[in-house]
Amino acid sequence: MIKKSFLFLFLSSALLSNTILDSYRNNGIQNIEKQLDLELTKKTYWKKIINKTDTTFGYIEKYNSLLLCDKEKSSLTLYQKDKNGKFIQKNNYNAFTGKNKGNKEHEGDLRTPIGIYTLTNKISKIDSFYGPMAFVTSYPNLFDRYFNKNGHGIWIHGLPIDQKRDKFTKGCIAIDNAGLECLDKEINLNNTLLLIYENKTLIQPNKEILVNLAMWLYKWRYAWKYNNLDQYLSYYAKDFKRFDGKNFSQFKQYKTAVFAKKEKKTILFKNINIIPYPNHKNTYQITFFEQYKSDHYKFNGQKELLVRIKNNDIKIFSER
């Protein structure tokens, strides 16, 4: 949703030249909306927003807590936003991870996955081998499914209460029980994100790239909202595969039918997050809460795009 401060500044500037008033007088409110949507695709707006944001881990609007698991150092570190929106290290835990190095590929390979995950649930009634509780992660996520990875049950859990165990897991992240109980008190599952990486490849993006990605996101939205099918499809990679398995050709056929209706759409994005994907250069996860409404369809929920940058060209290779 457009911030009030931006709207006020834009309207004030436009009113000086009577542009916005002339547009409203001659064409009504709809044409003004289109002009404002166009402003959201410009570098000036996003440069102001992102330059004053802590972008150590990406551009993050939604999440107040980040858990960083460094598999090489066997550590799990908690960062949280302070009152100024800066991510500050709050705690660090020694962590056991999978016996084998590398990214998880399939069930039973004894590897901890590399990627970006949400915490989907907390389990309190659990076998004592896993300590007092466990946080369930979203593995396999959209990225994992794109590359046909499988497996399940990747948790952050504790240590055996009255048993011995090896100094590795089958793929989960395990920390000591006191640390787990402390973590439980410090985080809210709904606004906590888990980043798992290996070989010191947690990528810290520069602000210029994040500005370009935010601009690009709203250009994609602009083409979508105003039914420019060719422009809209140009944002997708030829090897695109949607969460439900649709390839680019099938997706194009589906969207061609939808755009042919020429429906007026309301499309709003909020809680935007643009994060470099761990261990994958020039690859980003973009998530946001989407409000979509047309004559025949309504959607309010989480949206996810996986994009790659090649030769300064940004393409979506998966979407949910």
What can you see in these coordinates?
- Helix content is 29%, strand content 28%.
- By secondary structure, it is α+β, with helices and mostly antiparallel strands.
- The protein has 3 domains: 1-39, no CATH class; 61-197, Beta Barrel (L,D-transpeptidase catalytic domain-like), CATH 2.40.440; 205-319, Nuclear Transport Factor 2, Chain: A.
- The longest helix is centred in the C-terminal third of the chain and has 19 residues, at 207-225.
Summarize the structure.
By secondary structure, this protein is of the alpha+beta class. The protein contains 9 helices and 13 strands. 29% of the residues lie in helices and 28% in strands.
- Classified in CATH, the superfamily of the largest domain is L,D-transpeptidase catalytic domain-like
- The CATH topology of the largest domain corresponds to L,D-transpeptidase catalytic domain-like
- CATH class call of the largest domain: Mainly Beta
Largest sheet: 8 strands, mixed
Number of beta strands: 13
End-to-end C-alpha gap: 21 Å
Number of individual domains: 3
Shape: elongated
- Based on CA atoms alone, the radius of gyration comes out at 22 Å
Helix/strand/pairing class, anyone? Answer: alpha+beta
| Beta-strand content bin | 25-35%
Level-2 CATH architecture of the largest domain = Beta Barrel
Overall average residue pLDDT: 92
Taken in chain order, the helices and strands follow as: HHHHEEEEEEHEEHEHHHEEEE
Poorly predicted residue ranges: 1-17
Spatial order of strands in the largest sheet: 4-3-2-9-5-6-7-8
Range of helix content? 25-40%
The count of helical stretches stands at 9
